[in-house]
Design a protein that fits this description.
This protein is an alpha+beta fold. Helix content is about 35%, strand content about 30%.
Length: about 170
């Protein structure tokens, strides 16, 4: 993540995601500075188009390992086909809500439900805009908690790199 400062453990944007899930068991967020005036739609598109190839390969491995347990797999969309519109399946989730301030994606599975918010707000430094990627998860049964514990280290590795890819030169 050279030359891109991603702030981990930033204040999450959870209102829409938590309401969508009816509560949650886990939340985390990372933020990155964006060019002034960047919308959440632009931020989300930048995240999807800037995702490093190694992340796609790692997610493909995750899909292969967990497929026998009935977990849903990601849907990789070619960069040139990326559109930020409600209802579209992008990577591991469906886009649920799209506005200039926030794009909400997520999916419900038999083991857990999750929402990912791509929001923009004034930068914590008071200058410019920051993009905030918040993940909110609700577990189902002990299997959901166990699955998330297994992937949590990868989640904390991948998300900052994906968000950094939005502004990487």
């Amino acid at each position: 993540m050279t030359d891109v400062k991603v702030r981990r453990r930033t204040t999450p944007v959870i209102q829409t995601a938590a309401a969508s899930l009816g509560g949650y068991d886990h939340v985390d967020a990372v933020a990155v500075d964006l060019p002034a005036g960047t919308s959440a739609i632009e931020f989300t598109r930048m995240v999807f188009t800037g995702t490093p190839e190694w992340v796609h390969r790692l997610l493909a491995v995750r899909d292969a390992v967990f497929a026998p347990f009935g977990l849903q797999s990601q849907n990789r969309v070619p960069t040139e086909d990326i559109r930020i519109e409600p209802g579209l399946k992008m990577g591991p989730f469906r886009l649920l809500m799209v506005s200039e301030e926030e794009v909400l994606g997520g999916d419900d599975d038999k083991h857990l439900d999750f929402r990912t918010s791509f929001a923009v707000r004034p930068s914590s430094s008071g200058e410019g805009t920051e993009g905030v990627c918040t993940t909110v998860v609700r577990f189902h049964r002990p299997a959901g908690r166990l699955y998330f514990k297994a992937i949590q280290p990868l989640h904390h590795l991948i998300v900052p790199h994906v968000v950094a890819g939005a502004v990487r030169p």
